[in-house]
Amino acid sequence: MSRRLALLAALALLLAGPAMSLAPVLAGYALQFPRDGGSHPDFGIEWWYVTGWLNTATHQVLGFQVTFFRARQSEADANPSAFAPRQLLIAHCAISDPAAGHLWRDQRIRRAGLGLAEARESDTDIWIDDWKLERDGAGYHAHLIAQEFSIDLSLVTSQPVLLEGDAGFSRKGPASAAASYYYSEPHLRVSGIVTRGARRDKVTGEGWLDHEWSSQYLGRGAVGWDWVGLNLNDGGALMAFRIRDATGGAYWAGATLRNATGQSRSFAPQEVEFRPGRRWRSPRSDVLYPVSWQLRVGGRRFDLEPLLDDQENDTRASSGTLYWEGAVLASEGTEPAGRGYLELTGYDRPMSLP
Fold it and tell me: Backbone phi, then psi, for 13, in 5-degree steps?
């Protein structure tokens, strides 16, 4: 309980507004790799997020999510103790399994330090106990042994890094301080092993990596967001998000589209529209989520449908939140367009805290 209260205090600080001791996100910074694949401990909050679609040898279709968060605790800076919780690390992992009808999911939270939980600064290398995500040669390796399932995946890079927003500077509201540094790696080639209970499957598929860090992610008046990352069938990639206000309308929005020839374009808020369709109510939390969508990005329109409706992730024991995070199919007109992941936050209660 003390860990959860410490995390909620940190999130309240981060989401309510900027802190003087946190590094700001500024336009014009040129992301550098591999350094910017690593941790940025002077910023308030950061996450590394890997999702994708998998196929088993028996032609079952699964989705997977692996997310590591880092949250800075500025109030612990003056404490000289090695046990002071200057950084909190949180991890969520899940498998979307149509045969089960819901997520296999688990979560962890630890204070960083003492070699037990760390996020290295030099390159992507994050772990909590035996849960780990690291850049390894031509890609990444994700290894997590949860209570009822496990994920052991190799994710090989096949395309250049996709810089979101303005060369990696992603606005999240009308105030320039509400922003993040943000890049993605679409069309990762995935292979490995997943287990669910006593079942062990070799899998192959395609994934997506996001890495984002900020000191003021949401502006005042923002309550949550809808986000999607799509690996398009023609080799292109689309990231789009909408941040919602208290009325459910668009507080801010943005998108980046890489086309089949590798050219990228970012879209202004007025060029991005999320229109909710069918809704699903969780039998556990009673939260109502819009699980199908019409998405407009510029002159293109996509319909999004979930792999299964019940992809609610209950992470109240670590991050204090409920959210819907799941595999979705995209179509454009009557044609299949791609596959990806959809995230819906702030539907149980506002994400911004006073």
Answer: -65, -45
pTM for this entry:
0.90
For residue 339, how many C-alpha atoms fall within 13 Å in the half-sphere facing its CB?
17
DSSP bridge pairs for 102: 97
Q: For residue 317, what are its two tokens?
A: 């024991």
Name the nearest CA neighbour of 49 among 237, 202, 182: 182
Q: How far apart are CA 328 and CA 112, in angstroms?
A: 33
CA distances for 174 relative to 11, 117, 229, 309, angstroms: 21, 36, 23, 33
Q: Are 325 and 94 in contact (CB under 8 A)?
A: yes
Sign of CA dihedral 125, 45, 92, 155: negative
Residue 13: its H or E element = helix 2-16
CA 322/CA 285 separation, integer angstroms: 8
Given a cut of 50, is residue 1 above it in pLDDT? no
pLDDT digits (tens, 9 = 90+) for 147-190: 999 999 999 999 999 999 999 999 999 998 999 999 999 999 99
Instruction: State how far the Cα of 104 lies from the Cα of 85, in Å rounded to an integer.
Output: 29
CA dist., res. 129 & res. 304, Å (int): 36
Among residues 15, 52, 107, 46, which one has the least CA distance to residue 314? 107
Residues 6 or more apart whose CB falls under 8 angstroms from that of 264 comprise: 162, 163, 256, 257, 258
For the four alpha carbons of 214, 23, 115 and 316, in that order, the dihedral sign comes to negative
Per-residue pLDDT tens for 60-105? 999 999 999 999 876 656 565 555 668 999 999 999 999 999 999 9
The Cα 185–Cα 156 span in angstroms is 10
Q: Tell me if 228 sits within 8 A of 342, measured CB to CB.
A: yes
* pLDDT digit string, tens, across residues 322-332: 999 999 999 99
